[in-house]
Design goal:
Elements: H1 8-14, E1 17-18, E2 27-31, E3 36-44, E4 49-54, E5 60-65, E6 70-74, E7 77-80
Parallel strand pairs: 2-7
Antiparallel strand pairs: 1-6, 2-3, 3-4, 4-5, 6-7
């Protein structure tokens, strides 16, 4: 059995991005029940990160997610949720 050199595990942990690492105003893609939506970090409290989520009707609503929620990166876009987001992203306005 080989043991990894000291520091490799710590580098892997540093590359893990969580929702708590984002700042207020950061934008991301969020998995909702049926689709993927644009979200913005609205506030960070001790208990959770509060996201402002855009809905197709033009309104916004807020959701709370734990600080430890893992994010994946698609290029420079943070994504919260599992799956392929580009195929299921909600269409906000078909005129554009």
């Amino acid at each position: 059995m080989t043991v990894a050199p000291c520091g490799l595990d710590s580098e892997r942990e540093e590359n893990v991005l969580t929702l708590g690492d984002l700042t207020v105003g950061a934008r991301l893609i969020l998995r909702c029940r049926k689709d993927w939506r644009d979200a913005t970090v609205a506030a960070i409290s001790i208990e959770a990160v509060i996201l402002s989520v855009g809905s197709p009707s033009g309104h916004t609503y807020r959701v709370r997610r734990p600080h430890t929620s893992l994010l994946s990166m698609d290029g420079s876009i943070p994504v919260l949720g599992e799956g392929v987001w580009r195929a299921g992203r909600v269409n906000y306005d078909s005129r554009w």
